[in-house]
């Protein structure tokens, strides 16, 4: 599995080196972008959504086919107030209720509905327990250090190094309340607000943008990439979302694999065109980010929509 | 106007919070191995911050790999101009004290380091340098030990704040949209948009806002104080506020108040905590507050540096943070992961 991934990377790298980049637009035909179109779409994203900016990344990783100061797009400190997994549970619970309503008119089915109802009552109490458990697990694992995996016996215990009393600053003007918690959900005391740096790179092999996620936990310490998967829709976790080297930044990051991006974008473009909307290439990233939102539904990055995709996006 | 003698609450500031990108530790490691060696003298670095851009989370002071100097051999010319005027990355000067041993790290005299950094801020205020380059008001320091055998990075931030004694009191604070008239709010939003969209001013975190009787708003650099004073306009001292809280200003206001008092001798200060929503000025999130400061005259003496506070809280307590990057840096682990 990992080996095949490596082989594929090597293959991809070779293809990228020997092929010249796309110069003819195939945006409407294949849902893909040329390098120039990526820059146009990126410029438009930055101007409409100013929390996004272009960056140059590591000098050693710079791609020659992109301008030095426009290597990739990034938006930092994007809040993620809850885990995607817990949202899906609640969604299912709500779906159950609707089903019950539909069956309500039918006297014969009413008895059938009864056990469902009690089951739902139980569930009413349960989801918060579930999410609570998720929250607990995270906060315990992530506090001292981010890569605190099972096999890491080298994690230092900072408690040994309690600071001497003379450093205690008594200052009435320092806000002492645990300000981190201020806007957490009121129903329990578990901190859930993570933040993300979301970046978009250009994948020359697939000729589409590619999204990368760097997570930070409640105390703004780096999040292990594996924990990032909790913020990915469960349909996509471990399938379309993989953990790989970032093309412009050091380290491993979670990424939505771009192999289907062209096809999905093509489908979205087709739907728009069938409705008489002529998609423009500078809007590509808005459509793209709208589609990515179905993969990472709780990460509240910014994309404004210039036109409505309606229900067809799902 | 309210009498200063009546009991007013103390103005409390939400502490700054730090975030360190993985890239920072990667570059620090390679700097240490390839260039610095056992030289542990302090290195000037840059941190980055931006106004709060979401009602539910504060912004942070962020260290990225470009916070550190490059390894000379790498193209020096290429990186210098890149992040100029980036509205999402206002550069703040800082210093890193990276020790060679864990013992050395724990032995650092944190009080004096904080004091030394605070003195730089104090001197910049008195010399007027802080008027030219206002980001110097938010100067910070970080102490660290990079254990390159186990890939553990110990670190602790400080955001030095000169302490006002007695503390400033708060007359009132509320959303800018309530403090301003609708016309004023509209003009101010437009002026802020212009300031934030220009490459020349987007990353200038402290500024003067003057609102004329016809509601029109102008934003100026601190150094253009003379143009604002005494023209009868409403004057607000604006700053990019990283904090999201509805009743408290963020940390950068602390040294700003000191500057306003020292340079212009103003004791009743109207400040604007400038905040954004999704990258656009938001007068509902932004706050206008009124603070009163009463400071003994001795304070004007350049040689008596006021007390400073500002070591970062880590999970509600003062203490170091540690991050382990073995999975991203250890060649053995990388080899296993790749197999």
TrEMBL record, chain A:
One family name in Pfam for this protein: Autophagy_act_C
Main location: cytoplasm
Any one GO molecular function term: Atg8-family ligase activity
UniProt key word Acetylation: no
Keywords of the record: Autophagy, Cytoplasm, Protein transport, Transport, Ubl conjugation pathway
Position of the signal peptide: none
GO biological process terms on file: autophagosome assembly; autophagy of mitochondrion; glycophagy; nucleophagy; protein transport
PANTHER family registered for this protein in UniProt: UBIQUITIN-LIKE-CONJUGATING ENZYME ATG3
Protein name: Autophagy-related protein 3
Origin species: Rhodamnia argentea
Gene: LOC115745924
